[in-house]
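Quick log. Single chain, no ligands specified.
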Amino acid sequence: MGIGNIFKAFQPKDKVFFVLFEKVAQSLTAMSKEFHEGLLDFDMNDDTMLKNMSDYEHKLDDLTHEIFVQLGENFITPFDREDINYLASGMDDIADYLYASAKYIYLYKTPLDPAYTEFSLLIHKSCVELENAISNMKDFKNPKAVKESCIKINSYENIADDVLSQATVKLFETGDAINIIKVKSVLEYLEIVTDKAEDVANTIENIVIKYA
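-> predicted structure:
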């Protein structure tokens, strides 16, 4: 390897990682938007939305894999390797649980609970703020905007906790044991998505605290 290539190998790859993280964030926003809109106009006999959720999940798996490939190939990174790992894994978890939520909605074949769309809107809003936070992390020049997005995500997760509690109470009032089991499972998957978004927001905040 020539001296020029050696020097290049030790140069930071900020652009590579930030481009990949932005792609992940943009994909999550698009995925959550389609999920929310799909629930607003839901047809159990049309599995287009489920197939699209699966496509998004596979796309995000590929992007996450590419981040880990870059992590293995580059000596210098824009922030700690451990934080890159946490951030990539956390964002991938959002996609995984969002797809799982969609899958069980179709598999259980139960009438949609009104709370589903409340959750899907909170999930979409969280993903929009994640995209904003990732965008504002570049060069750590706008930590205030990043923090504001993270605060919003935390508030959405708090609202989601209340949505789960209220929906569960109403669900048990129906007395339909089989339906309760199915719907409660979906509600819990949806709430986990907001938990995962909050986890990512906390990771982003920690990164900004270290480097801004």
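The chain has one domain: 3-211.
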